[in-house]
Write a structure and sequence with these properties.
By secondary structure, the chain is of the alpha/beta class. It folds into four domains: about 130 residues, N-utilizing Substance Protein B Homolog, Chain A, CATH 1.10.940.10; about 35 residues, no CATH class; about 55 residues, Sun protein, domain 3 (Alpha-Beta Plaits, 2-Layer Sandwich); about 200 residues, Vaccinia Virus protein VP39 (Rossmann fold), CATH 3.40.50. The chain has 20 helices and 14 strands. Strand 2 and strand 3 form a beta hairpin. The longest helix has 16 residues.
């Protein structure tokens, strides 16, 4: 039993990786559930998360090296053995504080514990080759630049080719590299409950490392938090977790304090809450989502933050509600998307089926068309996504504007280094340190009654 306890972080990582293989589960939800089930302390939970995410971020690279050192190709190995080798290989190549010997021994013990004693010799031999060659691993495949980058940074080749087309070689590689780095947690001060200075002092007293965001007022990067939700400041609603890119949606929207706002795809609610804080909790915000369980989470968060101006309602963004027509001063459509801008937070997104992603613009167009009907003359329409693909971003908004001359792009200004923009903006992690995001601001022209 002592061995299982000692390896509980690695066992948890393996369990989640196996769930992903078998049930196509998402790593973040799987980790949360499995860490709770296995009752890991904060240190083991952090190690399990680091190993699990690290394996996903480097899966194609690890499999390439495993295939170099094993008589069988990685994809032919039994899933549990393949994942044990990935976990061992990741620790050897990427985790400085874990002795190589420990990584190998733990992998061999896991192989036995999971009822595969005959494979333990092979696991030992393969990982010892990792240890022997860790400073001089086999050369990566030649071929095209896309095939090299695909293996080097473990992104599917179709996506690498697309990024090379959009960004060019240097920036595409910078984007791929950033997707595999550890991301700081960003938070926004709840100005309804405290000032940024008060929040910083409170978090520092709780032992959290706090750094003011370099260009976004009232926002911080935090680390050393453990489970963030256990912090008194979180429970008291003094802040919310929100990436700088999502925060910028409210800044681009720039609502007036008494505006009537409709957020058509609101859950989990961060953008609605950010708008409410900017409006001093004085206007009316109707936050809609198709999933009732997500609306319940949204309502709980609003309560924690002490926000009273946000009401929730179950609604499909594509279904028309005649009673809302031309009623809103501001409509926000943060539409379902491929999520390819947040790979650094959700590493498994990169492995989504591209055929499924190709169907998204149709859904996005339908939501935008419907959302536009709710904007009053003179009102503002915001379209946003957490992806970087033009076909889901300006491809959708430009087509919409071509069909709707009553809407026009409207210039907006954001803090430097972004500055003024002519109506829309794609945020890239390698340029601004934010998630990958697209934001577009459009205004409905006042009706002429002459």
């Amino acid at each position: 039993m002592s061995e299982i306890k000692k390896s509980s972080a690695r066992d948890t990582a393996l369990e989640v990786l196996m769930q992903m293989d078998k049930a196509n589960a998402w790593s973040d939800g799987g980790l949360k559930r499995t860490i709770a089930k296995n009752k890991l302390d904060s240190r083991d939970a952090a190690l399990a998360t680091r190993i699990c995410y690290g394996v996903i971020q480097n899966k194609m690279l690890l499999d390439y090296y495993i295939s170099c050192y094993c008589t069988q190709k990685a994809e032919k190995l039994e899933p549990v053995i393949r994942n044990i080798l990935r976990i061992g290989g990741y620790q050897i190549l990427f985790m400085d504080k874990i002795p190589h010997r420990a990584a190998v021994n733990e992998a061999v013990e896991m192989t036995r514990r999971y009822g595969r004693p005959k494979a333990s010799g092979m696991v030992n031999a393969v990982l010892r080759k990792f240890v022997t060659n860790w400073m001089n691993m086999p050369a990566l495949p030649g071929g095209t630049r896309a095939s090299y980058l695909s293996v080097r940074y473990s992104h599917p080749e179709w996506l690498v080719r697309r990024l090379l087309d959009i960004l060019g070689d240097e920036e595409a590689e910078a984007y791929l590299r950033m997707n595999n780095e550890i991301v700081p947690t960003n938070i926004q001060t709840n100005l309804l409950k405290n000032t940024p200075e008060e929040l910083e002092a409170e978090l520092t007293r709780s032992g959290v490392a706090v750094t003011a965001h370099s260009w976004l007022p009232g926002c911080f990067e935090v680390s050393g938090t453990g489970d963030l939700e256990r912090l008194p400041a979180f429970r008291q609603g003094r802040f919310m977790v929100q990436d700088a890119a999502a925060r910028l949606v409210a800044l681009v929207a720039s609502p007036q304090p008494t505006d009537r706002v409709l957020d058509v795809c609101a859950a989990p609610g961060g953008k609605s809450f950010s708008l409410a804080i900017d409006m001093g909790d004085r206007g009316q915000i109707l936050a809609c989502d198709i999933h009732p369980h997500k609306l319940k989470l949204l309502e709980n968060s609003a309560q924690r933050l002490g926000i009273h101006s946000v009401r929730s309602q179950q609604a499909d963004g594509r279904e028309h509600h005649a009673v809302w027509e031309k009623q809103a001063d501001l409509v926000v459509a943060d539409v379902p998307c491929s999520g390819l801008g947040i790979i650094r937070k959700k590493p498994d997104i990169r492995y989504k089926n591209p055929k499924e992603l190709a169907r998204l613009p149709e859904v996005q167009r339908a939501i935008l068309e419907n959302a536009a009907t709710y904007v009053r003359p003179g009102g503002v329409l915001i379209y946003s996504t957490c992806t970087v693909l033009p076909e889901e971003n300006e491809g959708v908004t430009e087509e919409f504007l071509a069909r709707h001359p009553e809407f026009q792009l409207e210039r907006f200004e954001l803090p430097l280094p972004i500055g003024p923009r002519a109506g829309h903006l794609t945020l890239w992690p390698q340029r601004f340190g934010t998630d990958g995001f697209y934001i577009c601001r459009m205004r409905r022209i006042e009706e002429n009654h002459d």
